[in-house]
Amino acid sequence: MAIEIQTGRQDDLADMPPEMRAELEVVSKSRREFMQVTGMAAMGAVIAGCTAREHYVNPLLKKAEGITPGVVYDYASTCGGCASACGVVMKVRDGRPVKLEGDRSNPLTRGGLCAKGQAQMWGLYDADRVKGARRKDGDATWDELDAAVTAAVRGGGVWLLTGTVSGPAANAAIAAFCARTGARHVSYDACSSHAVAAAHKATHSAEVIPHYRFDNARVIVSLDADFLGTWISPVEFAAQWAQTRDLTGGRRELSRHIQFESRYSLTGANADERFRLPNAQRGALLVDIANRLAGDKRFGEPGKHDVLPADLDRIVSELRAAKGHALVVCGSDSEEQQRLVNWINHHLGAYGATIDLRNHSRQALGNDAALAELLKALEAGSVKTLVLYGVNPAYDLPEADKFRQALAKVATTVAIGTHLDETTSECAWVAGDHHALESWNDFEPVRGLYQLAQPGIRPLYKTRHGLQSLLKWAGEPAGGKDYREYLKTFWENNILGGLAWTSAVERGFVDARASVIHNMPVMNEDAAKAADLGKVPAGDFEIIAYESINIGDGRHAGNGWLQENGDPLTRVNWGNYVALSPHTMEALGVKEGDLVRLTAEVDGRQAALTLPAVRQPGQAEKVAAVAVGYGRVKAGKIVHGMGPEELAYNQAEGAAIGASAYPFVARGGKVVFGSVSAAGGKERVARIQEHDSQEDRPLIKETSLGQWQANPKSGNEHEIPPKDLTLWRKWEYKGHKWEMVVDLNKCTGCNACVVACSIENNVPIVGKKEVLNRREMHWIRIDVYYDDNDGSVYDGNLTRDENPQAAFQPIMCQHCENAPCETVCPVLATIHSEEGLNTQAYNRCIGTRYCANNCPYKVRRFNWFTYKHNDLTMNLALNPDISIRTQGVMEKCSMCAQRLYEGKRMAALHNGGKLADGMVSTACQSSCPTQAIVVGDGNDADARVAKLRKDPRNYQLLAEINTRPAVTYLTKVRNRAPKPANVTKTHDHGHDH
Amino acid sequence: MAVHVYSVTREPLVVGKKTLHEITHDVCHSIEGKPSMLWWLGFLTTGGIAAIGVITMFYQMYTGIGTWGLNKTVGWGFDITNFVFWIGIGHAGTLISAVLFLFRQKWRTSINRSAEAMTLFAVLCALIYPTIHMGRPWIGPLWIAPYPNLRGPLWVNFRSPLLWDVFAISTYFTISACFWYIGLVPDLATVRDRAKHWLRKIFYGTLSLGWNGSVRNWNHYETAYMIFAGLSTPLVFSVHTIVSFDFATSVIPGWHTTIFPPYFVAGAIFSGFAMVLTLLLIARKTMRLEAYINDVTLDNMAKIVLLTGSLVGLAYGTEFFIAWYSGSLYEGFAFINRATGPFAWSYWIMVSCNVISPQILWFKKLRRNPWVLFVMSIFVNIGMWFERFVIIVTSLHRDYLPSSWAYYKLTWVEYTELIGTFGIFFFMFFVFIRFLPGIAFGEVKGVNKFARHDDHAHAEVKHA
Predict the structure, then answer these.
(1) Cβ neighbours for A297, distance < 8 A, ≥ 6 positions apart
(2) Percent of chain A beyond pLDDT 90?
(3) Using CB atoms and an 8 Å cut-off, which of residues 166-185 of chain B contact chain A?
(4) What gap in Å lies between CA A147 and CA A707, rounded to an integer?
């Protein structure tokens, strides 16, 4: 089976280390050759944790001690995908990272990893990287760059702009740079949470974002905080939240999760009770809640909002009843609103219980006030040298245009970055940074929890660690050495406290957090009061620019895995869109895919964009929501199209995927009002799921907590017993019987598993055109269905279009015992294994597609073309355990057969042949932030999977066809609100009352 | 010698009081003289279309199935629709030759030759599709054959209806080809005897296998013909039964139906007769064969079309009834979706063409009107094509999990290939009527009214 390495420009390779280059140049023909060559280039020696640190790639003859070619080594590290700094395990094979997974021992994330984190490997291997030192118009040598920048930073008027840098050593390096050069350090987050910190400064005298503890909460009220999707530290929060949603192992209680939001977020989709509320009314609602809690009108008169008083009374009493176990979170950028949220939390006894101010979060350190000062200084021309480290303000600032113009006034601009993006390409000097996976670094996501990141590969290009560059320019002696030395020395002096460096590296973190949450600082109630907080601002259309779960703030816009990953709710990929509620679309006279123009005046500037409309049931009326992070002109090659060569489409220079919504971001959480109108014309929106109703089919079975407590089989009563009648000999599973159970109560639908699966199994990316042809190749997908609420779930007066309840269902190959695909293949290319897997022999497949037709779950994926990788180096990201499928061959989920075999091998080597539960895991399982997926040996009565299959909530999907799947589901149990005695059907839910 | 009983009220099967020589001449003339401009036009046009079709097929095989409009939900579309359509067309020939022969339906003689030829060409056209629809057609046809190999237990899957198809269709094609060829031998001998050019003498001499018209020859011929008729008859019913198993044995609502075997056979005969009608009405006009393909032939064929069309209509109704009666959520939805879903247009084309249009055949006047029959036969051809499209595509595009529901849009490649196969089909037909006797005149002579009182003449027929 040939590995097609095509279309890559040879100069992609020019700057690589010669060993790697030789390797890639040789790799051209057969898979076998590829394996031989990569096997020989055992570059694992660069990995820390082994005593010998070689600086050269060793041929196999001089094999580094402890490193065996072809064997995967796990290294604890920290994710560099965003500032949340989740703990990861880096899987390194033959000297290159091939996969990232969540670190189960990490005290915060407990094993999950989001899609962005896993997909950051793309940034390591893609050919768009900055391969060394550059000046604006071309390459430069490091000496030239260092000379110029060193001179500039010593000339005064230096500003350093970074994203969130939480690591103690990293901050020390920055501080050293600032001390030596007099530079002013400003950090910012494109999607800011600074209001939370600013509000705590006012109410609790601590300018920090607290560490939220959803796991301690019994009642969670979220106002537009998408804490399961994008807010501050979603993987960690999802893990905490899932602890309160677990009904296995004897647990019988669920938390109550109530969401008020304008757009339909992932968090709202997982709420027990969801209210749609335009952002404009959020202040009024907060005042109303606070007043009700206080029992007087001390926070002023609340304006009119859409939540019924009866509902609010009920929710307030639920909160009050859960005192000490309640948590209110708010995604607002308005400091005043956050102060009131703090008061509410204080009043509910959340501080010290569900909110930890002592071990506060350091995952969003951006300071909007400091950024404003920098922008002012730039305008004024007082910035002489601007050093940008890992940020892209020319794209992701709302006032990006202004910033770009102001850059011209700066005498010397220096960017430290990995890619030539909108900002680095404008700078006079670009110091090519190591990718996160090539770097040593440290992080402190939560105060007292120190995490290390270590490289999984020797730097591919002639890049230099960004912090080392800073140290060097500042004239620090450490600047002359590898940054690892600086980091190690710093840790040994300040953090390790006698602990061995190697053991810290091995573990990946040092936990020095205060163990008890007991701090109850003084609450300044007056700070929570603001004159017009309860007022509802009026305007035409509310425009919301939100962070999307896949692309995030835009730094991953050039990432094919993430672009191909569908939005959990709309299932749209490859571009952003204007989400509108069905009624609003009707009123505007636009249909799905019609281009819509948004215009608004935001903070004194005119913002406008044109994007296709997408119908989003459950979104508030007269609200237009657009994801930021798209519309990057310099996001790399994928902007110009991905997919099979035959269907390649070339976009013109300056094209982008989607359009940037950053100009619509208003500072200080102001509600943006603007106009929305049909722009004329259409643009097809690529979706990986087009139909969003279950059509009353029992696919996602669900029940309410009360019913489940009374009858654990509730919702699953109509289970169809498997029939034993069969024409064929029945399967016997003498050894293992691999089975999987998916807990629908825990699955949040975040789609991290989809990316995990794609990376693990070399699933090709097909591009927008092929997604429009409904040919995405994902082996796992998360179906989302909106269904009629039955009056007891959400606001009972609203229809399916207005406020539906959403439910998610991960679907992968069900590995049926009576597999419909197996009987129909004429050449036995898909057969049943003796361990219960439905296996696919690619070499034998002739591509009749009969199996896919006959699959009731539609999980089989056909190679319509030969899918080639866009650039040469991307082939390094391929998992050598999995063959690349060629044109005309069917493929599908194998339940990560290679990982199961690896588990068996490990059991044979280290556990006397006994496969203990937990020794095997699939890629989807090991990425899942909520651990909703359990895989194991069903023949082992002690295995979790075997126990879960006996759970009364367990059911087979489409059991009536008698396929007897090895994958089963656990019913979804919603903690529904008690049914109101009399629901009035007359309430007007329009926006304009 | 069989005793022939003739009805005086029954219309003659050959009109115009043709002499035996006239019959021979009428048929052989078209393959002996210079071809007409009309033939050249047809030959070159269809050849060109066939060539474009074949080039497109190679492009598609090289580039990938992605050049079609299929997707992750609809894995079969035009390809298998065309396959079943052509297989269906291929039914009438053998039915006319074998079944009607066994039932002593003498009106078949004027049409059986072309009908059989049509069968073979249709089966050849049908075979194109399973081949090119494979993702890897360069190995597929080989691996689907149960040949001994050195790869250990690597073998075909006898549980797969696709494999049954392979056997059913290859058997059917082999038997039909033999049957057709045996029927041709006496006529080929006549053509040989009339041949003047040495090349023709060798060509037809070789093909006629040394036929000398002796009683011994005729005896063997009649016996062999009877045996092949007997062998072919069950195949007429088995082939489409097995093709229907592709769908009936699956789990997809709309496919998983026990009615499929008889339903498919009726549909196949229906479509086959419609296609025979289409072809013969053209041949009759362009080759001036009105004396042989006359009103009686047309009337009889129209009756069969009416019968099978009504059977098909009944099957449509039964499917809906059972879908409702079964109480199955998915089954019920599949049929409602057929009639009202995104592909409702195809369903209603099918119903109009297959159920409504044949109803005009209740009237004798219309049954004997070639123009009406021609238009109706085209409608039935279209309708039966859509029947397969409806069964395949509407069942697949919305099956169990609504998340996977998808629409199927055709690409130019699929259209070109469909038109291309029609080109191939008609091209082969043009070649056939140019080089082989298009009417089994040896048999026609046996049913000629002129000969009915004259046993000597009957014997003479066989020497002519």
Answers:
(1) A291
(2) 55
(3) 166
(4) 72
State the best of B251, B337, B414 to mutate against chain A, taking most chain A CBs within 10 Å: B251
* Domain architecture of chain A: domains with CATH: 133-191+371-511 (3.40.50.740), 195-361 (3.40.228.10), 541-682 (2.40.40.20), 737-974 (3.30.70.20)
Main-chain phi, psi angles of B195, to 5 degrees: -70, 145
pLDDT of residue B115: 83
Domain boundaries, chain B: 20-146+156-461
Helices (H), A260-367: 266-269, 282-294, 309-321, 335-347
CA distance A933 to A102: 14
- Cα dihedral sign for A93, A95, A97, A98? negative
Helices B260-286, B215-248: inter-axial angle, 10-degree rounding: 130
Q: How much is the pTM?
A: 0.89
How far apart CA B173 and CA B189 sit, in angstroms, is 24
pLDDT at residue A206, rounded to an integer? 87
Give the residues across from A279 on adjacent strands.
none
Residues A300, A301, A304, A305: what is their CA dihedral angle, to the nearest 10 degrees? Answer: 40
Tell me the shortest Cα–Cα distance from A866 to chain B, in angstroms: 8
Q: What is the ipTM of this complex?
A: 0.90
**Residue B404: which of A773, A858, A889 has the nearest Cβ?**
A858
Q: What is the DSSP pairing of strand A738-743 with strand A967-970?
A: parallel
Q: What is the DSSP letter of A70?
A: T
CA B201 to mean position of chain CA atoms? 31
Options 1.20.1630.10, 3.30.365.10, 3.30.200.20, 1.20.1300.10; CATH for B20-146+156-461 is: 1.20.1630.10
A-chain CB neighbours of B137 within 8 Å are 846, 888
| Among the partner residues A693, A728, A862, nearest to B402 by beta-carbon distance | A693
pLDDT at position B448 over 80: no
Of B445, B421, B449, B434, the C-alpha closest to B49 is: B421
Sheet of A954-955, strand order: A933-937, A738-743, A967-970, A954-955
- Nearest residue in A to B161, CA atom: A824
Q: How many CB pairs under 8 A join A and B?
A: 170
Question: Which residues of chain B does A784 touch, with a Cβ-Cβ cutoff of 8 Å?
Answer: 403
Retrieve residue B40's tokens. 């050249």
Residues with pLDDT less than 50, chain A = 1-13, 22-59, 646, 791-794, 981-993
What's residue A742's pLDDT? 96
Chain B contact probe: residue of A777, A864, A890, A956 with most B CBs at under 10 A: A864
Q: What does the alpha-carbon distance between residue A614 and residue A593 come to, in Å, rounded to a whole number?
A: 6
